[in-house]
Amino acid sequence: MKSRLEQDIISTAESFATNFSDKGNFDFSVQSLRKLDDILEELREYHIDDDTLDSVSSMAGSYIFEVARRNYGGQYIWVEESDQPVLVTGAPEFSISIFAFDKVRGRIRNGKEDDIPYYFDGYIEAVEKGKNTGYRATIV
User: Fold this and answer.
1) Is residue 116 within 8 Å of 40, Cβ to Cβ?
2) Phi, psi (rounded to 5 degrees) for 138
3) Partner of 52 for a Cys bridge, out of 47, 48, 64, 131, CB 3.0 to 4.6 A?
4) CA–CA distance from 40 to each of 6, 30, 129 (Å)?
5) Which pLDDT band holds residue 47 (cuts at 50, 70, 90)?
6) Reduced to 3 states, what is the DSSP secondary structure of residue 95?
7) What values do phi and psi take at 26, rounded to 5?
């Protein structure tokens, strides 16, 4: 049975995929993250308030989370201190965590230095390392 948090993230990610289907094929593949990154780059051209930034971070972050979970597995955990979810992949054999909402905020605020596909490649490398060595890390 899926947790309420997992249900909410899946629903938000699927809404993102539907709502932005005119911008690309959001099929939850790793390759689709390039199109998501393009959308975030476009948003940099606009002044967006904190509420809008939170909304975009939740929608795009949920999509990133679901790309990770559907391709590499994992469980969602709510982190009170950060007031956001984290996806933990590989536990208990290894543990690779990502905070996608923070990464989306960084991408909008900082530009290409927070490139989403590059970030996700780091996650994939860490998961592969974890499978082989028991590695534990949070990808930021």
Assistant:
1) yes
2) -110, 125
3) 48
4) 24, 16, 29
5) confident
6) strand
7) -95, 85
Of 28, 32, 30, 132, the residue nearest 90 (C-alpha): 132
- Decide: pTM greater than 0.85: yes
Alpha carbons 49 and 51: distance in angstroms, whole number: 6
Q: What is the pLDDT of residues 75-130, one digit of tens each?
A: 999 999 999 999 999 999 999 999 999 999 999 999 999 999 999 999 999 999 99
* Phi, psi torsion values for 133, nearest 5 degrees: -130, -5
Residues across the chain: 140
Tokens standing for 134? Answer: 């028991």
On whether the CB atoms of residues 107 and 57 are closer than 8 A, the answer is no
